[in-house]
Write a structure and sequence with these properties.
This protein is of the alpha/beta class. It contains five helices and seven strands; from the N terminus they run H-E-E-H-E-E-H-E-H-H-E-E. Helix 2 links the parallel strand 2 and strand 3.
C-alpha cells in the first residue's frame, strides 16, 4: 500500500484532469472564493485547491498526513502568493488551538479519514464561532440501487483509491460532528465512476 500510495500521488493530477475540466474546478473556484482570514485545509493532497483561494485569505495552513502527497504539495508552494505552511497531521488530531481558524476547507478528503465524526469534531473545535466548513465531498447515494453498488464495491475501490470509501454517509457525519448542513447542495461529480458521482457542495456552520 505504501508503494501504491507513491504511485497514486504521482498520477493523481493526471487522473483527475478530465473531472476538473468538466466542472470540479468550477466548484472549487466558486466555493473557495468566499474563504477568508486564517484558513485551514484538511487533506490538501497535491494542492488542487491552491489556484482558487482568493485575496481574502491572509494565512493558509494545510494538514496533509501522507508523505507522497505532501512532497508534491510542497513543491507547488514555491512562490505561492499566500503565506502557507504544510503540517503532517491527520484530521483526527489537529495540533491547533480552539477557535483559531476563520474557515476550514475539505475537498474530496472526508472519504479517506479513519474516523470522520472525530475528524469533524476536531474541525469544529478549531473553527471560530462564526466560522465555516467549506466542502466538496462525494457521498453515499440517495438512490438505494446505487448505494447498494457503493456498498458492494467499497473494498476494491478503497484499494484503488488509497483508502477512499465510496459509501460514506458524510452528511450524517457532519451532523454528528456538530455541524448544520442547511447550506449544502447536492451535485454530481462529472466524468467520474458512478459510485463516486453523488456530491455535496457548500458551507456547513457550527451547530448551536
Amino acid at each position: 500500500m505504501r508503494v501504491w500510495g507513491s504511485i497514486f500521488a504521482a498520477l493523481y493530477d493526471r487522473v483527475m484532469a478530465a473531472t476538473e475540466e468538466a466542472g470540479l474546478a468550477e466548484h472549487r473556484q466558486r466555493l473557495l472564493a468566499i474563504a477568508a482570514g486564517r484558513v485551514l485545509e484538511i487533506g490538501g493532497g497535491t494542492g488542487a485547491n491552491l489556484p482558487f483561494f482568493g485575496k481574502g485569505v491572509t494565512e493558509l495552513v494545510i494538514a496533509e498526513p501522507e508523505a507522497p502527497m505532501a512532497r508534491r504539495l510542497q513543491r507547488k508552494l514555491a512562490g505561492y502568493r499566500i503565506p502557507t505552511r504544510v503540517v503532517r497531521v491527520p484530521a483526527e488530531q489537529l495540533p491547533f488551538d480552539a477557535e483559531s481558524f476563520d474557515d476550514v476547507v475539505c475537498t474530496l478528503v472526508l472519504c479517506t479519514v479513519a474516523d470522520p465524526v472525530r475528524a469533524l469534531s476536531e474541525v469544529r473545535r478549531v473553527l471560530k464561532p462564526q466560522g465555516r466548513l467549506l466542502l466538496i465531498e462525494h457521498v453515499r447515494s440517495e438512490d438505494p440501487r446505487l448505494a447498494g453498488w457503493q456498498d458492494r464495491l467499497r473494498r476494491p475501490w478503497s484499494w484503488f483509491g488509497c483508502g477512499c470509501q465510496c459509501n460514506r454517509a458524510t452528511v450524517e457525519s457532519l451532523r454528528a460532528g456538530g455541524f448544520s448542513v442547511a447550506e449544502l447542495r447536492r451535485e454530481m461529480l462529472p466524468k467520474a465512476p458512478a459510485i463516486v458521482r453523488p456530491l455535496v457542495v457548500g458551507a456547513a456552520a457550527r451547530a448551536r
